[in-house]
Structure formats: structure tokens, C-alpha cells
Amino acid sequence: MSEHTQAQVKLDLDDIQRGVLSPRPTPYAATYILFRIDDREHGRELMRRVSAVVTSAADTVSPLGETWVSVALTYQGLKALGVPHESLATFAWEFRQGMAARAAALSDIGESSPENWEPPLGTPDVHVVLVALAPDSARLEAAIDRARSAYDALTGVTAIWRQNCHALPTETEPFGYRDGISHPAVEGSGIAGSNRLEAPLKAGEFVLGYPDELGGVQTPQPDVLGRNGTYVAFRKLHQRVGAFRRYLRDNATDPEDEELLAAKIMGRWRSGAPLALSPSHDDPGLDADPYRNSFLYQQEDPAGFITPGGSHIRRGNPRDAAVAGVPRLHRMIRRGTVYGPPLPEGVLEDDGADRGLMFAFIGAHLGRQFEFVQSEWMNDGVFFGSGDAKDPILGSHEGSGDFIVPRRPVRRRLCSLPRFVVTRGGEYCFMPGLTALRWLGDLSD
User: Fold this and answer.
1) If you ran DSSP here, which 8-state letter would residue 436 be given?
2) Which GO terms describe its molecular function (predicted)?
3) What distance in Å separates the CA atoms of residue 321 and residue 314, rounded to the nearest whole number?
4) CA angle 248, 271, 378 (to 5 degrees)
5) Alpha carbon distance 191, 209 (integer Å)
């Protein structure tokens, strides 16, 4: 490995969008707005304007607090702005295809297939994604007001979809688990990771233009466009909360066992306390422990008697386990924001309301990060010694899946897993650096 890749990398934080590296505030309010560019010059003017609105990763002190605006573009959006073909060809091929075209690889099949997605998600009409995030609705509206000046009066740019998100009163995701706990440390970011046992990852795993874990540097061309950008996979995931509660109730012996099953399926108790640190009971007090996410699997629980190998969080981040090579090569920055009304406590039937998570993956390698984890770890079980078993929560089940809970003397098998999560749509996007936004604004034919 070269001396350059071994040295601590200095990130251009003032050129990287803050939404790339900063953990989501808790509690939060958020909104996603999609735009279509009908007039190239107006689209370029939008880029010039948003470059003055987007928050940089260096701007961690703001009158609005933990509030920021981020902007990303689809491949179709870059084409609509007139980015030259020779430049477009240097972007990741998964990004150029788009998420809808990658549906089979992502197990977006059946109810989750693109023909069932919520319009205009997955269509060529989606060009720009604007995301605003804040600790509360008042500061969110202030951020949106700032952003609105960037697209108001641009008749050639049309807002075509919006999804508002919010923290539930319980500060959990719709299935009832505490969310937003895990965050990797990125070299040069100045932001601590949530697991002190995990060495910081190379900046090039998450930001284009820097060395990654393999020593390579990925950057779309020209360098002014690609450097300090990243890829983002946005997904709208509908959650069948009533079905999930009913499945737990039907397969548990009593309320205490119901909570244990919920913990075994997730790998964490509802409070967010990991089974790895609290194997036999929930421990909400761990929420105040800054090291509550510092644990390993292979060294401490190789057989999964504490945290099942097929549980959601162990699949999504196997930590020190030797599965599919080096788990560090598949690490992601994950963000989830809740949408829709909560299903009242105790209700076991879904009421037809749309509720779930807007999910965002951030990383520099769509193929070996998001797509690998989605296809090989979420929707297959070979690497975990579980055959074709899928993730018990996110897996594309059709009522025939199983989930194994290792225990002595006899393991426990949960059968006939239904589909708890349905993909409502998604987009692969490129989130440029601030210099790149200005470069896109200055394009000419």
C-alpha cells in the first residue's frame, strides 16, 4: 500500500455535502422533494442556486442547529443538464442503469417490483432529489424556505413528488425499535463512529476521489465533477406493522417471549440495546452508554446463541465475522426517517395507511456496498450457513421463509415468514460536492 493511502487523509469538508457524513439528529423532521428538469438552462440555474443553499460538512455550527439541505441527481438528471456523454460514461454502471433496472438483483420482486412502485419513483422523470433534515418541524420549514428560493420561479423545473418524514413520539421506527444507532467512523471526517472496536474506514469508501479500503481511488470524470461526491440509494419502504405484531403474537408463548422473539429477529431489544450486551432482557439504560454499539460477534458469539447469525443487524453488519471476505468492504452509512402515522399500540391488523421508512444508503461503491448487502446478505443465507434463508424483516418473503434461533438443547425455528416490508420505489443518485454543483450550473452547450 502506498504512503499516500497509509497516511491520514484530509477531507475537503467545506466541499462535501453535510448530508454525506453527519449522523441524523434525534429527534428529527425531514422532507424529500423530487424535481423534473424540463428546461436545461433552468436546470443549470437550479444547480447554481442550490450550491448556495446546500450545507457543507464543515458547517457544523449553524443558527439552525442540526439542520441541513442536501441535493442529489439521478443519471437522467445529469443527462437533462447536458453533462457530456464521455463524462456520463465514467459513472458507476449500476448508477447509469438506475434502481428500477436493477430490481431483480435487489430482490425487488412481486409486490416490490417496479411496476408496483409509487409514481414517479423509478421513472425517467426523476432528475433531482432535494432532502431537508432538522431536529424539529419549525427548523425544517426554515430550511425548506431557504431552499424554496432556489427553485421558485424556475418554470423549467417542476416539483413532482414530496414525502414528509418525522420522528414518532416513541423515537422508534414503525416496528417499534429504536433507530439510528449505528454509524461508522470515516477517516478525516472528525465524526466519531458508534463502535469504538471498529477502526475508522478509509474515506474513499464513502467519498469519491479518495483512497478506499483496497487502495483504489474512484472518481467520475472530470475530477471537478466527481471529487467530493458520493452515491446515494434512496428507497421508500412500506412497513406492515400489524402483520409484524401479529406474527410475533402468534409465535410467542407469552408477552415476555414475544419481546425476546422481537429481539432475536432484530438483534436488538426495542430500546436499541443489543443482545450482544444484554442477552436475557431489555436494558433501556444502555441508551445513555456512549459505547452501547461497541461489540463483536465472531470472538464472543460465533454460533449465534446470543445474536442469531440471521438476525437483521448481524446480516447488515457482520462486524468481525469472516463472511464473504472482509465485511469492511461492504460497510455503508445508513439513514432512516419515518413517514406516515403510527399504528396504535396493540392493534394487530394493518389499517391501510401508508407508513414506513425513507431509507438512504451512502457510499462510493454501489455494487460492493448497497447491492451486495441487499442481494447476498439480506436476501440469501449462504454466507451465514443458512441456505437460502432471507433477512427476517427486510427479506422478500412470500410466506414460506424460516428464521432459526440457535439455542440448547434444540434450536427454535420460526416458519412461514410473510413479507413485512414492501418497496414502494427508489432511486440511485449522485450527490455532488459543492464545487461540482457550481460546475453543473456553469455547463454550456
Assistant:
1) H
2) heme binding; metal ion binding; peroxidase activity
3) 9
4) 60
5) 19
Pairing of strands 68-73, 29-37: unpaired
Q: Over the stretch 220-230, which tens digit does the pLDDT of each residue have?
A: 999 999 999 99
Which pTM value belongs to this model? Answer: 0.95
Nearest CA to 200 out of 181, 214, 184 is that of: 184
8 Å CB contact between 97 and 90: no
DSSP H or E segment with residue 362: strand 356-363
Average pLDDT of the segment spanning 416-429: 97
- Do 40 and 430 contact (CB within 8 A), yes or no? no
**3-state secondary structure (DSSP) of residue 244:** helix
| The predicted structure's pLDDT at residue 234 | 98
In the predicted model, is pLDDT for residue 384 greater than 80? no
* Whole-number Å distance between alpha carbons of 37 and 77: 7
Distance of CA 132 to CAs 138, 165, 258, Å? 12, 10, 37
Closest of 248, 278, 250, 270 to residue 261, by C-alpha = 248
Q: For all residues of the chain together, what is the average pLDDT?
A: 93
Distance CA 184, CA 195 (A): 7
> What is the SS3 assignment for 410?
coil
- 78 within 8 A of 92, measured Cβ to Cβ: no
Cα first-last separation, the chain:
42
Q: How many residues does the chain have?
A: 445
18 contacts 401 by C-beta, under 8 angstroms? no
Q: Give the CA radius of gyration of the chain.
A: 21
